[in-house]
Fold this sequence. Notes:
Blueprint: H1 3-29, H2 32-39, H3 43-49, H4 53-77, H5 82-99, H6 103-113, H7 115-123, H8 130-143, H9 151-167, H10 169-176, H11 180-202
Helix pairs in contact: 1-2, 1-4, 2-3, 4-5, 5-9, 5-11, 6-7, 9-11
Amino acid sequence: xxxxxxxxxxxxxxxxxxxxxxxxxGMAGARMQDIADEAGINKAMLHYYFRxxxxxxxxxxxxxxxxxxxxxxxxxxxxxxxxxxxxxxCREYITVLMENPYIPLFIVDEANKQPYEFLKTMMGNQxxxxxxxxIQIEEEVKKGVIHPVSPAQLxxxxxxxxxFPFLGRPIWNFLSGMDQLQFNYLMxxxxxxxxxxxxxxxxx
Length: 204
């Protein structure tokens, strides 16, 4: 194995270890030593590849965003019904959040501190084209396919119903007594349940 291949392999092992630690301890609770232990390397080597856990998180976050945002834009651009788009959006959104459950809290925290700078840096030119979706919602209302609804409210409902369980997971798990496996099963169900709930609430 060449040095370049070895470096790439080690870097990927570190990133996977960081994801595991972030899932179990969150961004605030994670320590570089925890990540080094999970990756099976010493802390000095970890710092050689990544200077801080913030830098590690940024790489993981960018990777998740780079996979998710194109899917959102592709879904919005699809030549299909609004109901199909809602189903695809909810399924893809919750899937990404299940893979990266520590991201929502980080986004909310950082976006509130410096919304424009943070979102511009992280999303770049991949910002979803919501205008296309808004137009389709308005057209569906005119056709009588759905009840009169504010496009902004509908999109916010879709986003919030997908993301809130991950923001409120510690509270929900405490109140419900669910473990991680049970929570994941609930989220798998939610991929379709949220879409159907929203569709049933707007269709005539």
